[in-house]
What we know:
- By secondary structure, the protein is α/β, with parallel strands linked by helices.
- Helices cover about 40% and strands about 10% of the residues.
- The structure holds phenylalanine and fe (iii) ion.
Amino acid sequence: MVALASHADLPARDLPAQDLSVRPDYTLDQPRHLYTAEDHAVWRDLYQRQAAILPGRACAEFLAGLDGLGVAADYQKGGGIPDFGRLSDILEAATGWRIVAVPGLVPDEVFFGHMAARRFPVTWWIRRRDQIDYIQEPDVFHDIYGHVPLLMNPVFADYMQAYGAGGLKAAKLGALHRLARLYWYTVEFGLIEQADGSLRIYGSGILSSKTESVFCLDSAAPNRLRFDLRRLMRTKYRIDTFQKTYFVIRSFDELFDATRPDFTPIYAALDALPDYGAADIAAEDAVLTRGSLDAKEGGWEDGTADV
Ligand code: PHE
Ligand code: FE
């Protein structure tokens, strides 16, 4: 065990200095005694806001996962930030995954290592009330509410483990930026098409954001393009505004099948090709919606550059 002196270096949430024992793999026991009544109230408010808008917007697999985890039942009973051990027991029985508490963002190899072993790292602390609409760093609401329900789905659970193993490999090949783009445009900001052609959300960065949950489906501003693995791995993204482009899959099987091949030759081939900016549309793209790219509507005028 190593002691992390303080969390004062975390910019997102200035927690009181605490001596928390953090293991070499960056995990710790969820410090439930540090949650205040206000922390639990912030969870409940975030939960309530999303519950009001996500039916009909979130994909069925997400809503089923949320239900299966008992998060909704917890809320009905007046519960706040969930107990990671209890969620892990339910999750493990369903798909073999467990949740591990971490102090915040962890180094890439640590993150990939946990994922490859079917352990999902979850930030233990919650945002402050004044950050309720937006926080750039993941907190417990984003990590639990946004990510964990889909780990109850067997296909998505396998995809996430494969992603972890793929990350360890990409690090050795100098291709982490390509894999990061894949994560961003699928796990964090992915849309999925239902059999009737309507779109639903499966990306956790959207599912934990009230405003983007509406924007990504209803706004005329962003592009919505058919998922294409190579295209997506060439596309830069925005980290601090709504997305300019969403990629749409037809099913989790499509996503898992497309990412099953060895990426080594794909990484090599892509290095000879130029990147796309976050808003670009290429002649060969299958376009579902060509966005107006109205900067005011997307909030893009204040944003930083694509990465
Ligand atoms: N098939 C990928 C590789 O060879 C691994 C991977 C699977 C990456 C699923 C992301 C998602 O690197
Ligand atoms: Fe995330």
